[in-house]
């Protein structure tokens, strides 16, 4: 793979896992009312 492809792949992985982590932290601090 080219360097640009690797950089874009890493960026996409960070965006996905970073968003997932932020969502989990947000739900921990403010749980959904049932």
Automatic annotation (TrEMBL):
<protein>
    <submittedName>
        <fullName>Methionine/alanine import family NSS transporter small subunit</fullName>
    </submittedName>
</protein>
<feature type="transmembrane region" description="Helical">
    <location>
        <begin position="6"/>
        <end position="25"/>
    </location>
</feature>
<keyword id="KW-1133">Transmembrane helix</keyword>
<dbReference type="InterPro" id="IPR031596">
    <property type="entry name" value="MaAIMP_sms"/>
</dbReference>
<keyword id="KW-0812">Transmembrane</keyword>
<dbReference type="Pfam" id="PF16951">
    <property type="entry name" value="MaAIMP_sms"/>
</dbReference>
<keyword id="KW-0472">Membrane</keyword>
């Amino acid at each position: 793979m080219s360097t640009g492809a690797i950089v874009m792949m890493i960026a996409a992985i960070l965006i996905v896992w970073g968003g997932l982590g932020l969502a989990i932290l947000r739900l921990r601090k403010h749980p959904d009312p049932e």
